[in-house]
C-alpha cells in the first residue's frame, strides 16, 4: 500500500538484487531491499513532503513514472526545490507571469529574486524503442546459466523486434558448454580470431566473447554475466549544439519577465564536458586557414554561442545557466552543479554556496569552488548513502 501522498509503496522489501537492464529506475528504487536504499527512499520522501500540496501530486506521479527520462526530470525539479529551500529562498512553483507560460520557479530571498526553469538533456530521441530492445537483450543474457565465464557483448546491429529469448539462451549456453575456462584467451572486439560467438537473428548482429571467472570463484550460480560492453553502433555526438538549442528554447519561452532568468540543465549524457558548455554559450571552436598558405591555420570561435561574444552580447536576460550531471537520488552528496554566469547580464544572479561558479574574466573562463560540500548542505554527510549498495551474500 502506498503512503498518503508518498512516492514509494509501503511493504516489506526482500529483493536486494541490482537493477535489471530493462528495469526502470522508479521500479528498481521501489523494489530493492537494503539499508543503503532505505536511506535513499527516506530522503526522497522527506523532500517530496516539503513540496506545496498543489504541486506534490503531479511531481510524485512523475517520480513514479516507468519512463526513466520522466522520473529523472521530476527528481531534478525536486532537487532544485530542496536546494532553494535549504538556501533560505521562498519558492513559487509555476508563478503567474505576463507571458504565454510560466517558468518552473520564482525564488525570492530578501532583495534577491529570479526565475528558474529546469530542463534535462538525455541525448538523441531518435529510437528509444531500439534502446529498450537492447536492454531486453541484456536481460536475456543475464538469465543464462554461465557459472564459469563473464561475457563481453558488443551490439553491432539492433533488430526491429525483441530477440527470441529461447533461441538466444540455447545458442549461448551451447557455445559456452564447449569452452574450457582454463584455456580461453581473453580478447575483445569484433575480430574473427579467438573464442567468440557472432549471433545473428532477424536483424540482430551481436558479438560475444568469453572472459573466464577466476578459478576459486567458479561455479557460483548467480553472478552477473555481462562484464564488458562494447562500443555498439557508432553515433555522432554533438552535446554543444543540443545544449545550445535547449537553452535557446527555454530562454525564449516566457516573454518579458520582471526578474532575471536562470536555466537549470541536468545533463544525462555521459560525455558532456566544459568545452561543450563553452561552445554552447560562447561559440564553437573552429580551425581557419587559407588554402595554399602553410602555417596560416589558427583557432577561432564561431559567432554561434547563445550569449554571443564581447563585442555583441546576446540574451542578457538569461543571467545564468546551471549545469549538473546525472543527478539521481543516490548521488545528491556527490554531484556539484556549476552556475555559468552571463558576462554582461541585465541583472546579476549570485550563485548559491553549494554551486561552483564559472565566469568570464579577462577573456578566460574562471571556475570558483563552492564554499560548502553537497553532503553538508543537504545534511547527509560526504559518504552518503552509508554502507554497501549490494552487500555480498555468503
| Biggest sheet architecture | 8 strands, mixed
User: In what order do the strands lie side by side in the largest sheet?
Assistant: 1-2-3-8-13-14-15-16
Radius of gyration using CA atoms only? 25 Å
The overall pLDDT, averaged over residues, is 89
Q: Please state the overall shape, judged from the principal axes of the Cα atoms.
A: globular
* Separate helix tally: 9
Spatial separation of the terminal alpha carbons = 32 Å
Strand content range: 15-25%
Order of helices and strands: HHHHEEEHEHEEEHEHEEEEEEEEH
Query: What would you call the structural class?
Result: alpha/beta
User: Which oligomerization state do the chains in this entry correspond to?
Assistant: single chain
**Would you count the extended β strands for me?**
16
Helix percent band:
25-40%
Low-confidence segments, given as residue ranges, are: none
Q: How would you characterize this protein structure?
A:
- With 394 residues, this protein is an alpha/beta fold.
- 27% of the residues lie in helices and 22% in strands.
- It has helices at residues 25-31, 35-49, 53-63, 68-86, 128-142, 165-177, 239-251, 274-282, 374-378, and strands at 90-93, 105-109, 112-121, 149-157, 197-201, 204-212, 226-229, 261-267, 285-288, 298-301, 308-309, 312-313, 318-325, 338-341, 356-361, 364-368.
- The strands form 4 sheets. It has an 8-stranded mixed beta sheet, with helices on both faces.
- The longest helix is centred in the N-terminal third of the chain and has 19 residues, at 68-86.
- The relative contact order is 0.12.
- The mean pLDDT is 89.
